């Protein structure tokens, strides 16, 4: 492991980081990612201008991400072992967003269950970029499920993958890169060139975890349908990573997702995802359970590797 952690320590610290997230949730004040977002805005304001926008965008990404990752790596390497362990687990806690997914998605399902469309529209608008002001129950349920499936990879499994590769600094690298993609990775006039580096780097860091996420969804759901949807539908999506994750997730749940959605006042016809019935409010809960079970699967895999490593070491 590039992290320098043995498999037993890796599994233990991964479990600790996940437990902290489930117990504490996101920091309500002084969250590091909020400060990072403010820093990124200042860097973008200084560098997002001609000429050489792509090079400036790459420089901006490096200035925003690399110093923090390098500092975290340096501190962990110099720290005594017990403090290094705390730092690894603490970085994973700050970078993972499992409980946050639940806190944002489940209230939508509850609002839909009691027929409160007004609240459901507001709650859904917090987690998606599409227009929800006139959305019906089916549209809101579809948006909630799609957000859970995609962000399961972005907020949970990508972070766990890079934690397994490089410990706390790896989780931090992924989370900061993913945050910059969310801020700069738009194909509009402002970010088309400047955000190119952030989008491509995030695609590269997400390639392996996205496919492991898709396999996890397929394994825990209707795996034949999930794998078929992944193969047939993912290539139609512009994102090389969101396509496999959402197609496999929709297939695993037996839902028909994708299709029309309103963005900036215009109807966008997106490729289909999955096969089956249209999403309903209760399917948001099913999608959350799929993400939670996939997290348990990844943790179980880490502990299995730890057990194998321990047995081989003591053979």
UniProtKB/TrEMBL annotation:
The chain crosses the membrane at residues 6-24, 58-75, 155-174, 290-313. The keyword GTP-binding does not apply. Belongs to the CobD/CbiB family. Pfam families: CobD_Cbib (PF03186). It is a multi-pass membrane protein. The lineage of its organism: Bacteria, Pseudomonadati, Pseudomonadota, Betaproteobacteria, Burkholderiales. Its main location: membrane. It is found in: Cell membrane. Converts cobyric acid to cobinamide by the addition of aminopropanol on the F carboxylic group. Keywords: Cell membrane, Cobalamin biosynthesis, Membrane, Transmembrane, Transmembrane helix. The gene is cobD. Pathway: Cofactor biosynthesis; adenosylcobalamin biosynthesis. Signal peptide: none annotated. NCBIfam families: cobal_cbiB (TIGR00380). This is Cobalamin biosynthesis protein CobD. The keyword Membrane applies. InterPro entries: Cobalamin_biosynth_CobD/CbiB.
């Amino acid at each position: 492991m590039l992290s320098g952690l043995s498999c037993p320590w890796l599994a233990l610290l991964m479990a600790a980081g996940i437990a902290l997230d489930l117990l504490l949730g996101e920091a309500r004040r002084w969250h590091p990612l909020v400060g990072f977002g403010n820093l990124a805005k200042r860097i973008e304001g200084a560098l997002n201008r001609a000429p050489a926008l792509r090079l400036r965008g790459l420089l901006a990404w490096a200035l925003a991400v690399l110093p923090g990752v390098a500092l975290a790596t340096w501190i962990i390497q110099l720290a005594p072992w017990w403090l290094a362990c705390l730092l690894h687990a603490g970085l994973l806690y700050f970078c993972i967003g499992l409980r946050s997914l639940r806190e944002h998605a489940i209230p939508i399902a509850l609002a839909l269950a009691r027929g409160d469309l007004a609240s459901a529209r507001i709650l859904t608008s917090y987690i998606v970029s599409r227009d929800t002001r006139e959305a019906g129950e089916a549209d809101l349920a579809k948006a909630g499920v799609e957000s859970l499936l995609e962000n399961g990879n972005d907020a949970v499994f990508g972070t766990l993958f890079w934690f397994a590769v490089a410990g706390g600094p790896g989780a931090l690298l992924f989370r900061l890169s993913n945050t910059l993609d969310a801020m700069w990775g738009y194909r509009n006039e402002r970010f088309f060139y400047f955000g190119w580096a952030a989008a491509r780097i995030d695609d590269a860091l997400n390639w392996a975890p996205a496919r492991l996420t898709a396999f996890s969804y397929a394994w825990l759901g209707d795996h034949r349908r999930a794998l078929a949807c992944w193969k047939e539908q993912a290539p139609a999506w512009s994102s090389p990573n969101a396509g496999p994750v959402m197609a496999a997730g929709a297939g695993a749940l037996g839902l028909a997702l994708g299709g029309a959605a309103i963005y900036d006042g215009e109807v966008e016809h997106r490729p289909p995802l999955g096969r089956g019935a249209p999403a309903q409010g209760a399917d948001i809960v099913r999608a959350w359970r799929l993400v939670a079970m996939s997290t348990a699967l990844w943790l179980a895999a880490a502990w299995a590797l730890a057990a194998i490593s321990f047995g081989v070491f003591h053979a």
